[in-house]
Design a protein that fits this description.
- Helix content is about 30%, strand content about 25%.
- With about 300 residues, it is of the alpha/beta class.
- It folds into two domains: about 150 residues, 3-Layer(aba) Sandwich (Rossmann fold), CATH 3.40.50.720; about 110 residues, Dihydrodipicolinate Reductase, domain 2.
- The strands form three sheets. The chain has a six-stranded parallel sheet with strand order 2-1-3-4-5-11, with helices on both faces. It has a five-stranded mixed sheet with strand order 7-8-6-9-10, covered by helices on one side. Strands 12-13 form a two-stranded antiparallel sheet.
- The longest helix is centred in the middle third of the chain and has 17 residues.
Length: about 300
Amino acid sequence: MKKRLIINGAAGRMGRRIVALAIEGGFFEIVGAAEAAGHADIGKDAGLVAGVAQTGLKLGSEYPAGADVMIDFSLAQATDKVIKYCAQNKVALVMGTTGLSDEQVRKLQAAGKKTAIVWASNMSVGMNVLFRLVGKVAQMLGDDYDAEIVETHHRYKKDAPSGSAITLARNIAGQTGRDWPGCAVHGRKGKDALRQAGTIGIHAVRAGDITGEHSVIFSTLGETVTLAHRAHNRYTFASGALRAARWIVGKKPGLYSMGDVLGMEKSRRGKKPESGEPQLQLKLSNNAAQDGAISTSKFEGGHQ
């Protein structure tokens, strides 16, 4: 029997891709495709809006009963309704919306005591590997290497910096003993804008139709190390979200991460992931420089 899925934000850039992949994959029965009341696509066929076959399912503004899981890629102002619905109806939730307020984070934590939630700032497999690498690399390089993060997205992205950039910065801060968020510097301006030791620069670029790029720069006198992730299109995020939705159905209540979904770690049920990501470190073998061997273990203490 197919699992019953609601897609919130179904007419958005991510939502349309998730609808299309869910139809093509055949694992889910899409029972709800939701958008904000008054949206121009309300009443239209969800499949046609997504650019695939007609489904007979109309876009609406309410969530139907009987769903197993919801995927939310909408706007922060819509998440209160999403969280309340999933908690009250014990519907599992994959939360991909970023830019949540502190109050919304607390609501999400409370909902995690009633239903299973995957909360992540980025659903990409490659990006989640990068999340786990940056802190360890910063730790290995040492304090003499300046850390700067540059994230680039399309002109329509509303929140800045991206949730992924925040996660990257948190991970660096946590594994190098820096105060978060006090160490963060969001851009620089003025005649006296010298870089301060121990800070992490975060810079947001918005241009054209760029899907998403993140570069983490570690630089000292004489050399620079750069770790980067570039999303070619939204497929990687949509497929990751559907993978998370398949995984979360039937799980016990709690907050889970993409690390749980991907088998990178054990879950920390009921605890707040930093910006949607778990606390974890990567341990490189003594011969890692030669063989690239990596093993994982839970990071006990500090931010991720």
